[in-house]
Specification:
The structure holds two protein chains of two kinds.
Chain A (H helix, E strand, L loop, with lengths): L1 H24 L7
Chain B lengths: L1 H26 L8 H19 L8 H4 L4 H29 L14 H21 L8 H26 L6 H31 L2 E9 L3 E8 L12 E6 L9 E4 L10 E6 L16 E8 L11 E7 L4 H13 L4 E8 L8 H10 L2 E7 L9 E2 L4 H7 L8 E5 L2 H13 L7 E4 L5
Helix pairs in contact in B: 1-2, 1-7, 2-4, 2-6, 4-5, 5-6
Chain lengths: ~30, ~450
Amino acid sequence: MSWIYARILTVATVVLVLILAALFAAPALPWV
Amino acid sequence: MRKTLKGILGVLFYLGMVLAPLILLLATPTPPGRGFWRELAVALGFAGLSLMGLQFIPTARLGWFEDIFPTDTLYAFHHWTSVVGTLFVIAHPVILVADNPNVLILFDLANAPWRARAGIVSGLAVVLLTALSVWRKDLDLDYEPWRVGHNILAIGATGLALWHIFGVRYYLALPSQRVLWIALPAVWVAMLAFTKLYKPIHMLRHPYRVQQVKQERGDCWTVSLEPDGHEGFSHEPGQFAWLTIDRTPFAIREHPFSITSSAVTKAPLCFTIKELGDFTSWIGEIEPGTRAYVDGPHGEFSIDEHEAPAYVFVAGGIGSAPMVSMLRTMADRGDDRVIQMFYGNPNWEAVPFREELAELEEKINLSMVHVLEDPPDDWEGESGYISTECLDRHLPDNREELVYFVSGPVIMIDFVRSNLLEMGVPRGHIYEERYEMA
């Protein structure tokens, strides 16, 4: 069962990192 | 409930460690004129480093984390998040170059500034580190030299990456940013010191001596250890420990093995190990009196962790080791719960613990189902593999209510799990012990 949680946490890490990185970089977009 | 709280705290700690650099970046006023892709590359670089540095934690074998996730899951998590971290690390220079090809000038190692050299070598070390781990078996690398290289590359890559970010000083000018990038590595170094210094020193102060080495069926040997000058430790039946024999505990030459002795007594502490042609090939030559060190107990593959009125054990070969510890413990405790054990082996002569299991059938409420790949001519039992049909023939009607422990080669575990799921056993009732942590 714990494997499922560990996999969810890994996917969540990827998603959160990409969201936060994009949010950080977004103000540099010309239309923002 | 306590475990749930620990789990939530553990996940929050983990996310905090990984995401803190990004959250701090978001809270920092950004200078004008920066490009989206450059900023994204920088953010991914920071995230990659925080994720890679964090890898010193799941492998530190901290009891606190092992209470949340079993050790094999922690190691699997270490593998997955390392691959993710490596992809972020790779994305950092790739996006920078794609955004501005002039950056390529920094890849000229002969003329590039040291901060760039450190970053490039660190990135290459990370890629090599992950590639060697993912493809260790395909590359036929022995565990011990691989592990030494793994440690050197991990420490080197992390140190060089820190040199790179402090050298570049991009988003590291504010005191809060500097504090964060000193605090994070401080946690990593603390973990490293715990694993490489504190634990070996603790083991050095609690040595063991080999009392006996006994040959078992199926090319296995049981090594019995006596604590030397201390009481030893208590363990739960089915747990494992990392074993170092005839080496200093500072040498990176320890291996995980299931404890086969009963949990009722602390000593002798027994491990049954199969000769596989690698470092295990000299197990039979170990002399009594040889010094040994034990880091344990670890794991939660135990009837004490998963209470149930009845259990089903499914083992392949020496994967029976944790089950034997559980059965011996049940016999010592007078535990009369029903156990059905499916035990797969190549042939009848190679069934480890064969005689003792027959004796245990008399002592406790155990019924054995031996499954042989190559049975003798007069064999009337099961043959082949532990298939759905085989399980179906022996399991009671209330099979969905039972708790299953499965241990053995990974291919067997996967096969048995899919068979059990097919038969309607809930996923949460199946516990697995995978030996392939590295």
